[in-house]
Amino acid sequence: MENLPTKRSYEDDSNTPNVKERKKHNTDRYLTYDILRIVFKYLNWIDLSNASMVCSALYFRSWLEVANDEKRTRGGPICLINWGKKYLKVIEKLRNKPTLGLVFKAPHKRNVRQDCLCQILPQSCEIITLGTCGILIENAEMETILEERVCAFLPEIPNVTIKVITIVSKDDFAQYYEQMRLALAKHGINRSKCLLLFCNQAGRALAREAAVRPSVWGGVVKDLYVCNSKNPIHDEKCVTFAYCIGITIVGSVDSWSIVMDDDCNTKELVEQKLESFKNHISLRKHSMGFMFACCERGTNMFNERDVESTIFKKLFPEVPLVGCFGDGEFGETTIPS
């Protein structure tokens, strides 16, 4: 096998201890582009970002170039389920740098800083936590919450703007509504737009006024709060309870929504409606499905578990699906009937 070229040193004389040590251990070797690609394939987003700062002169390529090539092979949304503090370790190993995190879990009244995702996610990532009646991931609907948490992370997407607008006081609604209107109008009428909208019972009326125009997904949950760690005056608890949270997604994305009304109460009707939905849309390489179900659906309606999520995964096997059960959903069918 042909020997790899030896790296030249411009800072050490050939008799210096550093050079002698490198020769002894045969460390003056280049890592080729192909080897770096194999190594970088196994790195999480933090390690990949750190690796991109290391330079190598072989064939005029740099680690930054290899890292960027690896990043281009990634990019899809990520969803996962875990419980206890183990889920923090799992999230630390995410392959894509997240820009938005949604956490679905059991209702509770407090969340201290040492158990918050802001410790391990980038500062630019918005973290929204929803305390709900039930959670779902893929084709598993857990209507009786145990200790599991379902997390969904959207990565940074070129030419896409994600903005989180939070209302923590009823007095803020006028300002909140104006911020949301401007965010949705920012990129003109021809740009794709999507609105994720959540509220607690106290904010239900406010949210209904905001649920207009773009494809909407969301509903009413038990608890709703955002991470407050970006606020320089936050206390030891890094969460803020909210009445309403609106998440606008504007730019180079396609979004569609469909509502299953009360009359859609059998497996056959659900599959028929989702089949029609599938025939009217065209998915991109990276897609994600969100499902918000009223707690009166699920086993209460079908006398069987996992009905709607199973049908969705049958029709869209490659699309990750996450969501929850709540006290009422917001939505609008945005495809031809």
From TrEMBL:
SUPFAM superfamilies: F-box domain. Residues 1-23 are annotated as: Disordered. It comes from the Eukaryota. GO terms for biological process: positive regulation of proteasomal ubiquitin-dependent protein catabolic process; protein polyubiquitination. This is Uncharacterized protein.
